[in-house]
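Hi C.,

You asked whether I'd gotten around to modeling the 453-residue construct. I have! Everything is below, sequence then structure, no commentary in between.
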Amino acid sequence: MVAATATPAVPGPKGLWPVGQMYAFSRDPLTLLKGLARDYGDVARFKAGPQSVYLLSHPDYVRDLLVTNNARFKKGRALQRAKRLLGEGLLTSEGEFHRRQRRLAQPAFHRQRVAAYGRVMVEYAERVSARWRDGAEVDISEEMMRLTLAVVGKTLFDAEVESDADEVGASLTEVMNLFGYLMLPFSELLEKLPLPPQRRFLRARARLDAVIYRIIEERRREGRDRGDLLSTLLDAVDEEGDRTGMTNEQLRDEVMTIFLAGHETTANALTWAWYLLAQNPEAEARLHEELDGVLDGGRAPEPEDVPALRYTEMVVAETMRLYPPAWALGRLALEDHEVGGYLIPRGSLVLVSQYVIQRDPRFWPDPERFDPERWTPEAKAARPQFAYFPFGGGPRRCVGEGFAWTEAVLILATLARRWRARLVPGRAVELQPRITLRPGPGGVPVRIESREP
């Protein structure tokens, strides 16, 4: 319990009505959060309608929230509302049920199994590489979405979903675009009405469900262990609990979570990597130099090459610093909690933002500059642990982190060894912070150029 001593009022903006602050957050959350941290310090408060929101902007406070005192908090409203799509999957479930599901899923992400997945990642990236043409203009975000969708379908569910890519991609985009609607203060009431956004959301979810349930039903009928995540989940029995397996609904929720979150986040990281490399020719040249050396003049990478692709990994790490796929995490306080000398009352929403802390000049000199050299072992050791947390932290740290790192490094290496991207002049690239940090509606238009190793 928090000691009954007086604590100072948490600083925050006074000039906006709560509805105005909520509108500012929904319209441009990144600017609002960066401004709060800059103007009011490491603990700041604003109102989003009736909800008090506290922003913590120091690595020590991130550790306090996600690790030290994680049991005092539960998932925030954003992920509570995400249950409308993801059900009780790993990303949204709580308590003992979450721990049970994590135990069942964990074996599918062991290092040896991820290494086996790596060969499929390269194979699918090679298909994209063979399809690209010198001088062609493409939306690199759309290319990466289609590629990672195919990879996650094959490696985790041993299913060819490239034929479903257009439908799944359109449905996912529809859901992401409707996320702001789902987050409105009274959306729980609005969703009971036959409003156009609600009907579009239900149609998009139904299309996604059709793909997922089809895969589950095919695999149950087959009854064969294919060595993928779905086989693991189908065969899993909770040895520490009631020794039962998963129902179709539980399988659907886990498959939906990993199927969509698993490809969306990596696709965004790869998209922003191409975007940053196109604007930083020195880093791009250093990347090509490493690929030409490690890959012996142009062969396709193999999973065993990943430890040698150090600069490629540094490019990915620096990309996720500037453009973290998960740009903020929210938790709801289950009891009064004191942090940084301030009291956070029970029922408050607490935010920590990767986008804010990973651009903080106290931990990142010249923070807006793209510099993969920040990721040398010496530089990493000199920073606080939670100055960088793209995969979260504590008991809810992303279970698929190793998969995501391997996929991003191998796909970037496979494609960049033969191709470079140049931004199309006159085409603006916008940020769209929804559930993930996506490009805006115009995507990231680039011209693909061939290169000789």
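If it helps when you're writing up: The chain has a mean pLDDT of 87.

Thanks,
B.
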